[in-house]
Amino acid sequence: MPAASSHPSRSSHPSVVIPASLLPSDGRFGSGPSKVRPAQVAALAAAGDPAAPVLGTSHRQPAVKDLVRRVRAGLGELFALPDGYEVALGNGGSSAFWEVAAACLVERRAQHAVFGEFGGKFAAATTRAPFLADPDVVSAEPGTVAHLTPVDGVDVYATPHNETSTGAMAPVRQVPGARADGALLLVDATSGAGALPVDVADTDVYYFGPQKVFGADGGLWLAACSPAAVERAERVEASAGTATGRWVPEFLSLTTALANSRLDQTLNTPAVATLVLLAEQVEWLLEQGGLAWSSARTGESAGVLYDWADARDWATPFVADPAERSTVVATIDLDDAIDATAVVRVLRENGVVDVFPYRKLGRNQLRVGVFPAVEPDDVRALTACVDHVVAHLG
């Protein structure tokens, strides 16, 4: 991609001109969809080669099924999945998986950790389900983290690993006594999977979308499922048609998704371009050094932003506890005297894009995606650009 100074989104008449010497080599810092590497775009172009086409061919044929195989095998290696764990995938994104989980994995009652949009939306899904008891919800204010706690009668514990909306990150760990009681732990890793340290063996379902760390388009969910989760889905879905059973639509059936995934396909036609981008990114992460490498790289980038904010009297990390600060999405509050909307606008005029805060949070804030595709030196350049803009906006 060309340098940010010649980025096509740059205004021809920016209100403040950032010197080319300060600009990052690539000005994309979105929290999702995120930066797509040029090598991924090249792989996508190659997938359309008429001599060996992948795009525009049947998703039931070997060329596309090989993409799914590469994705499933690559994720298994990236997360060092324990024996018996399976990677399933299906259409609809993480929003669809909340409904899949409500239909197929929660037997009676769930507990949800809610400290941002992802956790809240899953809690809303199980609240709406007419066949489930109202969930137990453990909430925390935006910028802090809620932690799961043992509760009698809960058979699914659910928490985000990372909240894109707030830049808060929670540890992934078993709820004391839950596994012995047969309860499952479901972790929404949409904005962190592939770049946050995790032992997937501590979870029963570690699920995510491809549009963050993996630099692909949305509309797909992926889930690493434990044998216990597979058995739960089989048992719940087998009750359909009985007097006490529940109806599970085929599109929301986890067992159907698993059956198709084992054949390296999806129930419905997938977005093949997304699979190309995803497979390329998974294999790139493995080539660089896997999860340890990507975690270190995003940690470096996030540390640049937090240290920069700490060194200024007009910027503050939104998440107060350093242990809870995300290392993939950094949120930085600006002093009320500085209009963050104006800062974001000027940055975009100069080709530095998508550092706006989450719309519902309503804070005077910058939010920066620092996924593995983002160069740490570009994050350093971003901080210099913000300094320049703030100085010139007065």
Describe this structure in words.
With 394 residues, the protein is an alpha/beta fold. Helices cover 35% and strands 13% of the residues. The chain has ten helices and twelve strands. Residues 1-8 have low confidence and may be disordered.
How would you describe this structure in keywords?
10 helices, Aspartate Aminotransferase, domain 1, alpha/beta, Aspartate Aminotransferase, domain 2, globular, 394 residues, 35% helix, disordered N terminus, 3-stranded antiparallel beta sheet, 12 strands, single chain
What's the pLDDT, averaged over the residues? 94
Structural class: alpha/beta
- The count of helical stretches stands at 10
State the end-to-end distance. 32 Å
Order of helices and strands: HHEHEHEEEEEEEHHHHEEHEH
CATH class of the largest domain: Alpha Beta
* Largest sheet descriptor: 7 strands, mixed
**In terms of per-residue confidence, which ranges show pLDDT below 50 for 5 or more consecutive residues?**
1-8
Looking at this structure, what is the CATH superfamily of the largest domain? Answer: Type I PLP-dependent aspartate aminotransferase-like (Major domain)
Gyration radius, rounded? 22 Å
CATH topology grouping of the largest domain: Aspartate Aminotransferase, domain 2
* CATH-level-2 architecture of the largest domain: 3-Layer(aba) Sandwich
Beta strands, count: 12
* Share of helix, binned: 25-40%
Number of domains: 2
Strand order of the largest sheet: 1-9-8-7-4-2-3
